[in-house]
Inverse folding.
């Protein structure tokens, strides 16, 4: 299956930006260097898409990608560079709103892009044991014994250690839809 077919056959649990980035990272033009527009074009495509998947996308990125693809299609010396430019252009045309969501709303609809995910502690599951706070190297978890702990989203580096440490299943990873959680530590409900 070529790159364009992969983009056209995406499922709901796949992110077009993530799939496109992986296609570009594995593309032969990355190691070729025979033509400037193929090698440099694919390098620039990778940098822009990587920024978009890491919450660093800018409003001008879509236009920049479109212009870069047009330049690659007319100036590259090989068919591989033209094919990947066509793939990116097709993705922008077909899934433009998903690119907009990543760039403007900072959300990943499919929940694939790790930087768009957040960790939350569910009040009805937390027993206030403090295991999550003990493993958090960033001190992003606030709380004390027998109190529902809170994750400070500004301090959290998304390492996932808290998720692995919670035996109660109180910590979840969320994408665009966030659970309702207390804003400050509250006493745990007795079970």
């Amino acid at each position: 299956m070529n790159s364009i077919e992969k983009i056209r056959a995406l499922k709901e649990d796949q992110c077009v930006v993530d799939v496109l980035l992986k296609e570009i990272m594995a593309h032969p033009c990355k190691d070729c260097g025979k033509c400037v527009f193929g090698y440099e074009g694919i390098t620039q495509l990778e940098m822009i898409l990587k920024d978009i998947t890491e919450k660093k996308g800018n409003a001008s990125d879509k236009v920049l990608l479109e212009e870069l693809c047009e330049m690659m299609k007319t100036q590259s010396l090989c068919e591989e560079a033209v094919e990947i430019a066509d793939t990116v252009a097709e993705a922008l045309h077909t899934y433009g709103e998903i690119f907009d969501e990543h760039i403007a709303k900072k959300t990943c609809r499919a929940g694939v892009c790790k930087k768009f995910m957040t960790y939350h502690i569910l009040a009805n599951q937390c027993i206030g044991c403090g295991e999550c706070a003990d493993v958090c190297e960033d001190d992003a978890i606030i709380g004390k014994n027998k109190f529902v702990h809170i994750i400070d989203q500004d301090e959290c580096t998304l390492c996932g250690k808290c998720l692995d440490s919670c035996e109660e299943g109180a910590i979840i990873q969320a994408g665009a839809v966030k659970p309702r959680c207390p804003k400050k530590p509250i006493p745990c409900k007795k079970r």
Remarks:
- Strands lie at 118-121, 141-142, 150-151, 171-174.
